[in-house]
Amino acid sequence: MTTTGVKRVLSIQSHVVHGYVGNKVATFPLQLLGFDVDPLNSVQFSNHTGYNCFKGPISTEKELANIFEGLEENKLLGHYSHLLTGYIGNPLFLRQVGEILRRIRIANPDLIYVCDPVMGDNGSMYVPKELLPVYRDEIIPLADIVTPNQYEVELLTGKEVRSEAAVWEAMDWFHERKIKTVVISSSDLGQPGILRAFLSQMNGPRLAIDIPKQGDKDLFFTGTGDLFASLFLAHSHASGDVTEAFEKTIATLQAVIRRTVEQMPGQRSSGSVQAWERELKLIQSKSEIEHPKVVLKAQRLN
């Protein structure tokens, strides 16, 4: 049974006890924007991996299948309007996600799948390399929307992305696999101190937004890609206008980062900023999530 008009996300990604990444950073914004969220955790860690240490179990594909069977036997699959996936550290678990998607789409052929292919950043992978071919050959072609970063695009396409011409070639690689909307959530292709995000819709607009980097030049935040994917899911569902969805997603992300930087205890050099001090100030940004103020406008490039 498909329940029309329902906004409910099955979100399969990481969970941390302390901090905001994975399901911890995705659930609250989606709920504020009107979605019921059913988190299904790929790992349960004490904190994200940017700390000195992290502890906790990694879920297996058998555990995933067992939980999903409970949803299926209770005839709940038709209640999902969206599937969202993020950090997964086990290739067999990821392959099981493909089977889950197929079964949900039997119950609801209109399901939208938003895939954030979390594999690495800044030139290095932080998941087993065996995940790459599963994403590339089995999972990505099933997606409606993908939100990789620049490095993940390079991994998937097998080509360097060092120019805007290469960005659009990479976008076409995804579109050739029938993916309707591709968003590169961040790239270093902007001017100094500027990140540049890109969006391409099959038979639709090609867009870019320049994003001023906040804080010290070496300061970085964990969980921003997870937050981006959840926000874009919500805003793209609310509006048929991908330009509006793109702008609102960036606006909210910038507002959360701005608040995080402002609430850091002093402006020290980035090397002395502790991991806990860089945790996104998500709850404190409730109003900005509910009512994003668009300042950075998208450029249409086609």
Automatic annotation (TrEMBL):
Pfam family, one: Phos_pyr_kin
GO MF annotations, alphabetized: ATP binding; pyridoxal kinase activity
Record has Transferase as a keyword: yes
InterPro entries, per database record: PM/HMP-P_kinase-1, PyrdxlKinase, Ribokinase-like
Catalyzed reactions: pyridoxal + ATP = pyridoxal 5'-phosphate + ADP + H(+); pyridoxine + ATP = pyridoxine 5'-phosphate + ADP + H(+); pyridoxamine + ATP = pyridoxamine 5'-phosphate + ADP + H(+)
Enzyme class, spelled out: transferase
Pathway: Cofactor metabolism; pyridoxal 5'-phosphate salvage; pyridoxine 5'-phosphate from pyridoxine: step 1/1; Cofactor metabolism; pyridoxal 5'-phosphate salvage; pyridoxamine 5'-phosphate from pyridoxamine: step 1/1; Cofactor metabolism; pyridoxal 5'-phosphate salvage; pyridoxal 5'-phosphate from pyridoxal: step 1/1
Documented EC number(s): 2.7.1.35
Span of domain Pyridoxamine kinase/Phosphomethylpyrimidine kinase: 107-263
Gene Ontology BP annotations: pyridoxal 5'-phosphate salvage
Keywords: ATP-binding, Kinase, Nucleotide-binding, Transferase
SUPFAM superfamilies noted in UniProt: Ribokinase-like
GO cellular component: a single term: cytosol
Family statement drawn from the similarity comment of this UniProt entry: Belongs to the pyridoxine kinase family.
PANTHER family the UniProt entry points to: PYRIDOXAL KINASE
Protein name as annotated: Pyridoxal kinase
